[in-house]
Design a protein that fits this description.
The protein is α/β, with parallel strands linked by helices. It has six helices and five strands; from the N terminus they run E-H-H-E-H-H-E-H-H-E-E. It is about 55% helix and about 15% strand.
């Protein structure tokens, strides 16, 4: 696989920090990308969702801060452009899949906006998307 860019979804980061089997796949994938001319992105909406999950789990603010620093070290924090936001709304509006969040449509729109970009996620609805890399399928070879 020849990736220029990769977007890391909240579910991938959660598994990464839990240290689960899927998290080990995410870690391997990210570390392998570090040796390639690939840019890993974490969109700001993922950070918002990530914080919400930490509040839900009852994790401390210190733990969140430490994990966020690690995310910033391993990826580039990316703002959502107006173009991506509009395309995400269009994709969601045209979709018959009502169980997919607008945040996931934002990530998919980013994938479409960036050349050769994939979204790394544990979310099942990513599995059949052209822009998706589904974690349960293992780490892609290249």
């Amino acid at each position: 696989m020849d990736l220029e860019r990769c977007i890391i979804d909240t579910s991938a980061w959660i598994e990464f920090f839990k240290g689960s089997e899927d998290g080990k796949l995410v870690r391997e994938f990210i570390l392998r990308l570090q040796n390639e001319p690939t840019v890993c992105y974490t969109p700001t909406v993922v950070i918002a969702e990530f914080k919400k999950k930490y509040v839900d789990f009852g994790y401390s603010s210190e733990r969140f801060d430490e994990d966020l620093e690690r995310i910033k070290y391993l990826s580039t924090i990316d703002q959502i452009s107006e173009h991506v936001a509009i395309n995400a709304g269009k994709l969601r509006g045209e979709s018959e899949e009502s169980n997919i969040s607008i945040i996931d449509y934002i990530l998919l729109a980013m994938g479409k906006n960036y050349n050769n970009c994939k979204v790394l996620s544990k979310d099942r609805h990513i599995k059949n998307k052209e822009e998706g890399i589904y974690i349960d399928d293992g780490v892609p070879e290249w």
